[in-house]
Amino acid sequence: MYKFILRPIFFLFDPEQVHHFSFGMIRFFSAIGLGFLFRAIYNVNDKRLEREVFGLKFKNPVGLAAGFDKDARLYNQLSDFGFGFVEIGTLTPKPQDGNPKQRLFRLQADKAIINRMGFNNQGVAAAVERLKAKHKVLIGGNIGKNKVTPNENALDDYRICFNALYEHVDYFVVNVSSPNTPGLRELQDKEPLTALLRELMVLNGTKPQAKPLLLKIAPDLTDDQLLDIIQIVSDTKIDGVIATNTTISREGLQSPQALSKQQGGLSGKPLTQRSTEVIRFLAEKSNKAFPIIGVGGIHSAQDALEKLEAGADLVQLWTGFIYEGPALVKRINKAILKG
C-alpha cells in the first residue's frame, strides 16, 4: 500500500512538508487508538531477534536512525512500526532553525536524499519534556553543537546535552560527522575527537550509572582515518561506533545535476556499498573489539543482512524507511529469523 499508493502521492510534494504531514498522520492515527493496528501489521515478536549490545537488551536489531524524529515527538508511535530502538536528535543545547529552506531533496532516480538541514531542532530542553513520557522502546540520544558555538567550545555544548538527556535516554551518540554544520567535521580529527570523547567519558563516569556512549562517523574517512577511529575507541573506552552518517560524495549519481549538485549530505542507496565497507574495515581491523551500528543505504532485507555479516551488531534505517515504507522493518526482521 505504501509504495504503490501513499509514496507516489507523497513524492508529489516538498519533502519537508511531507515529513511534517506524515508526523501529523501518525499522531492522529495513534490518538484514535490505531497504534495496535500498526503493531499487528509490522511487528515481528520473536525472542530469537533479541540482541544484547553494550549492556542493553534490544527486542530486535532494527532501529530508526537519528534525523527522523529530531525533537522526540513520536518515538513511542514510531516504535509501533516494528523498530527495536529509536534514536532521537541531533539535539543541540539551544533551539536553532537550521539552514534556509529548501534544504531537503529527493533523488528518485538514485533512491537517495540530499539534506542540509543543519541540526534544526527545538533545543534539548524541549525534547526532555517530551521524553518524560513512558518509553515503549529503547531511546538513543544523538547530540551535537550549536552552529554559533566555536569548535574550541564544542565540549560545553555536548556536556549540556549529555546532562540534560542523561535520565531520559538509554544510550548516547556523539555526532561530529554531519556535513551541514560548518566546521563540525573538523572535530573528527584525531586530537580534538580524542579530547572530546575523553571528557564525555569522564562526565559519564560521574553519573550513578554510566550510559553507553557511541560515536557516529562519516563514510568519507580514509583507511588511515578509520584506523585512527579504532585507536580512539580503544584509548577513550567509548562503547561503540555508528557507521555511517551521510556522504559529501556525488560519485555515480543518475539524477539531474540540479538535484545531484545540491549541497548537503547524501543518504540512501548510493551509500549502501561504502557504509558496508566501513563496517567491515572497522570490524576486521579491530578484531571486532567494539559494537557497530550499521546505517546507510539499507533499502532491502539483503542490504541489512550484508551489514550484519560485515560486522554490524544492529542496523538503522532512515532513507530506506522513506522510500520503502514500514514494511521494510518487518522484512528485515523476518529475513534475520530465516538466517
TrEMBL record:
GO terms for cellular component: cytoplasm; plasma membrane. Its EC number is 1.3.5.2. The chain crosses the membrane at residues 20-42. Residues 49-336 form the Dihydroorotate dehydrogenase catalytic domain. Pathway: Pyrimidine metabolism; UMP biosynthesis via de novo pathway; orotate from (S)-dihydroorotate (quinone route): step 1/1. Substrate binds at K70, N115, R116, M117, G118, F119, N175, N180, N245, T246. The keyword Nucleotide-binding does not apply. The keyword Membrane applies. The active site is at S178. One of its GO terms (biological process) is 'de novo' UMP biosynthetic process. PROSITE patterns: DHODEHASE_2. Its main location: membrane. It holds the Pfam family DHO_dh. InterPro entries: Aldolase_TIM, DHO_dehydrogenase, Dihydroorotate_DH_1_2, Dihydroorotate_DH_2, Dihydroorotate_DH_cat, Dihydroorotate_DH_CS. It is a peripheral membrane protein. Binds 1 FMN per subunit. FMN binds at A66, G67, F68, D69, K70, T90, N142, N175, K216, T244, G268, G297. It is an enzyme of class 1 (oxidoreductase). Its cofactor is FMN. Monomer. Belongs to the dihydroorotate dehydrogenase family. Type 2 subfamily. NCBIfam families: PRK05286.1-2, PRK05286.2-5, pyrD_sub2. Catalyzes the conversion of dihydroorotate to orotate with quinone as electron acceptor. This is Dihydroorotate dehydrogenase (quinone). It comes from Sediminicola luteus.
